[in-house]
Amino acid sequence: MIKIFEDEQAITNQIAKEMKNYLLNGENPVFCLASGTTPEKSYRQFAKETKDIPRLKDLRIVSLDEWVGIERTSEGSCFQMLNKDLFSPLELRDSQIEFFNGTELDLEKECLRIDWFIENNPITFSLMGVGMNGHIGLNEPGCPALNHSCVVDLSEETKTVAQKYFNQPTSLDKGITLGLGQIIKSKRVLVVMTGKRKAEIAKAIIMNPKAQLPAQVLLGHDHIDFYLDREAAKWLDKETLNKGE
Q: What is the CATH number of the domain that holds 127?
């Protein structure tokens, strides 16, 4: 379902609320979380509200994606962004975090490692951002909707946009990512788009079935909602907006 919120703060509040709910309810909470600027406020709010909750010791985080060839301690790595916004504030143990290592020599083996973890620890909550080209994780336009992790060639747009995460120009060529099928199998999935810079891609995803964008694979599932603020939704037609409210 498409749900339209008044502003980014309203989405932040709702995401933090749902994260807390999936932490406290059900057995073996396993979260798969996108890094980046869109969800960081939600992570900080979730951390503030849950850091003293005993159930937090049961939370496991599984990686969504990582840049190939980038050390996880590097500014701009997906791990480091999540570490700053979530892992460190919550003081999670290393054993609670199962993350892709983009510097492994055998990346196929790295994919199998994460696939094995998910097979044995099903994802209960996933939070996805959407790239400017409609990618989910690092599943780029043209990539097949796989049910397993894979190494992908990054699009030129992704390489360019990703530079904002680094302190200096950084060479990026490939990424390692969960497949769209693995994300869809999560018990609950939220896909978030906020701000006017996401308005064009939001319109393409929701109103142009022929666009063949990765994010469109997540449409039409009962357990998956797309959350947009008014700015991101400004080019959607009134019928679509009314369905989302």
A: 3.40.50.1360
